[in-house]
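WARN retry 2 of 3 for item q-0093 after timeout on previous attempt; input resubmitted unchanged.
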Amino acid sequence: MQGCALDELKDFCCQNQDCTDYGQRDAGNLRVAFRYGRGKQRRMLACRTCQQRFSERKGTPLFDCRLSEDKAVSVLAHLQEGVGVRKTGRLVGVNPNTVVRLAVQAGRHAQQIHDERVAFSPSDP
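OK item q-0093 returned
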C-alpha cells in the first residue's frame, strides 16, 4: 500500500457497536496499534474513542482467513468466473472446503453491503 498511514485508514471505521464512532468512516479516531501475521503484513487497528482493537480485515470476506490475500482473491476470482469448487481448489492449490468457506463468507458480506446500500437508497417517486 502506498501513501500516508492516515490516508489508508480513511476507509475503515470502528467495529465496536457500543462506540459513538461506530460505522463512521474517516472520523480520525483510528490508529494502527500493531502489525501481525506472517511477515507482519496485517494491521491491528485501535479506536481512540472506545479503545477497542480489531483487525483491519474485520467486516470483510477475508476476516479470519488464513490464506494470503493474493490466494484468497484468486479463489474468489475463479468463482466469479463460474469455475466450480473442486476445480478452483485444484487451480489455486487449496482445499475445496476452503473454497466453499470463502464463497459463503463473501456471499454474506455482499448481502450485508447490499442491505446497507438499499436502506439508504432514495425511494421511487
